[in-house]
Amino acid sequence: MNPLRDVLAAQVDFDRVNSCDAIALFITATNVRTGLPRIFRRGEIGLDAVMASACIPDVFKAVEIDGEAYWNGGYIGNPALFPLVDETDCRDMVIVQINPIQRVEVPRTAAAIRNRMNEITFNASLIKELRSIALLHELIEAEGIETERYRDMRLHRIGGKGLEHLSASSKLNPEWRFLMHLHDLGHSATEDFIEQNFAHLGKRSTFDPAVLFDSSIRDPAIPPKHDTGHVA
After folding, report:
1. What is the pTM of this model?
2. Are 209 and 133 a contacting pair, CB within 8 Å?
3. Which residues of 187-206 are buried (b: 16+ CB within 10 A; e: fewer)?
4. What pLDDT is attached to residue 27?
5. Is the separation of the CB atoms in 120 and 68 below 8 Å?
6. CA dist., res. 166 & res. 105, Å (int)
């Protein structure tokens, strides 16, 4: 039993979603049997696809679609970026970060260690895809190569700041006051992005993905260690 399924069925008109050609929408799920991503595109997006993309296996039963079982897409693509590169004409990619990549503190308790393992697992696919995009950018610049499939992408990020104090278990907090706190964080991050970077859209990247896969580079969204009150 999953009450979210009933809510989505009542609130979302999937026929209208699939008939809309103004926005390219991609939803990722993980094939349990093969461990590979399944990308649902316009015409395939329905209640089962959405439920599969959000299926946490230790909470919900795997969602079966066309005889295959699926779990949360975050295990293999969180989110999957390659359709945005390969199947759209837009060269600006804006990542809305809702999951902390780096942590200032080293987890010490069993619960904190599990939370951090959860974050690392779900962030791994995003970091790998961003690294691939960064390598393509270097190749394009070095060799002057530009093709429809492998083209230079301009990267941007909204969010990342204000999340570092939230544990992975906070994702299970349904309290309205907490949800409004997240809502306000999102609005604040978006306003900051628009003020600082909107003029650069279509011109240059405003986010260096190296902060995610090079530990020697400090992510500006993460406060310095001495600001936390903890001893290094």
Report:
1. 0.77
2. yes
3. eebeeebeeebeeeeeeebb
4. 95
5. no
6. 12
